[in-house]
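Re: [help] complex structure
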Amino acid sequence: MRLLGIETSCDDTAAAVVVDGRSVESNVLASQDEFHRVYGGIVPEIASRKHAETINAVIDLALRQAGRTFVDIDGVAVTCGPGLPGSLVVGVAAAQALALARDLPAFAVNHLHGHLFANYLEDPHDPSKALPAAPFLCLVVSGGHTDLIFVEAPDRHRVIGRTLDDAAGEAYDKVARLLGLGFPGGPAIDRLAQSGDPKAFDFPRGLHRERSFSFSFSGLKTAVRYHLEAHPEDRTARLADIAASFQAAVVDALCDKTLAAAKDLGQTTIALAGGVAANSSLRHELRARASALGIRVLVPPLAYCTDNAAMIAAAAFYRGDVARVKPNELLVDPNFAW
Ligand SMILES: Nc1ncnc2c1ncn2[C@@H]1O[C@H](COP(=O)(O)OP(=O)(O)OP(=O)(O)O)[C@@H](O)[C@H]1O
Ligand SMILES: [Mg+2]
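Output below.
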């Protein structure tokens, strides 16, 4: 089954062609970073307008790069939420128009399922990599979410923990702004941290002592702010040390809770998903600490961690009839829950 995936939930306009939820024939993404950078964050109105300007060209390019036309496509999968309403509506309108005009089945996809099912896409660097076999635990860490999901079956997910305040990616972006590193902040902190000392400052690990699988990152962000106010000289002299120490606190908290949940549920496979899963330290630390416990860690290729449309096509394929809707029933749902 060859699906056209469409993703416009936030600030990336994306389309992809994927066969059987696994083999990626094309994965096109038009980033809007340059339009939002000057504001230090995403401006919803600009995001929506840019999606509208770009969506047709992105879909056209995805088909051409796959060497396909609409005749070869068996269905259209689109992100319906969660996300920015003005952004979601552009992708949903495009998918609806295509499905109606071409008489194709439509699939309403939850963006978070997309992140999770990125783990099912073929890894071009490791084509023999096995599919995750449910049950397993998935840590979805992105700009808007930090959710620990128990995947009982591909179509049965249970939230067993989540952040009580900021998402991990949001903390990265806010701290990057405090440090003057620009937007998006995650990749900038990841790079800078590599030349810093992660033990230089002992920033708080939110809810460290609690037995629950909840996360908290707002106290960490505030601790970095107070540190900069008390030691303005560190802003230049020890920027890399602050970045590395902040990152160590995030990674520690994510690894501690995820490994504790895996042990509690008796799970031996953990999958990572979402934009923060691209973080070099998180990938390395979680793998190292899990392997010492006999736990396997699956990580999607970098391009499938941050927002993309291949993951949306994969989610539609694996969700199947659960996601299938009549084209005129495709609706934007900005608060679409797991
Ligand atoms: N290497 C990295 N290290 C840390 N964070 C990163 C890295 N690369 C990207 N990020 C962060 O990932 C986030 C973007 O991820 P993603 O695109 O999945 O989020 P989103 O789609 O905005 O949110 P959601 O998926 O929750 O709706 C941003 O907060 C960004 O800073
Ligand atoms: Mg996302």
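The mean pLDDT is 96.
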